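input
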Amino acid sequence: MTIKHVSLNSITPAKATIVNGVEIDGYVDGQPMQFVRIANGRIKPSVGTTIHTSCGTGHVVGYTKSNMLRVAITDFNDEFEFITADETDIMDAEEYVARNANALNVGVDSDRETFIRLHKSEITGRLSERNEERMMVAFQYFEPNEVVVGGSIKSLQPTDEVVVRIIADERETPAERKARIKRERALATKLANAMLSVQSDDLDDTVPADILAEMQECFG
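output
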């Protein structure tokens, strides 16, 4: 299966259609496809897609380990307010997002510490250059304007790009089907003959002659 990023308006919807045992959502350029979805079951937008959240408007910059969206807010909602549990502080959208980003980075630090413990060199006590790069890619820090979005978001626009999975449509031509059946029959006959050849001595002693004759007739 191939992953592609396509605009919503390039997809031709399909209902109750099965291709190679897979229920598809539609077609892209004539190819059957399924939507890739995030943790809450919504269609997965591509990196760069504009997302509207309660904190403001931003764009997708990546995805979390739990299959949610990482969104960088570029236009904060001036009407957003968050009151802390003890009601001692009221945060605006920018403050709220920055505070959550700091909390998320505590988790990133923990993931990096675990990775280092598991993959560091026993000699130097440090990561190799390759493992250092792997860690930096796998466990990225959140910027102060980044938020994790896993709940409801406003509907995507027709021109927005989304992630889809192309389903291989492996249809045989009549000639291919004929050739496959011929190969399968030839292989079955070869295997049967080999088994009969190996077991012929034992079979002659234990299997009645009429059964042996029928097996020879069936398998050649």
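quick obs: The first strand starts at residue 2 and ends at 7.
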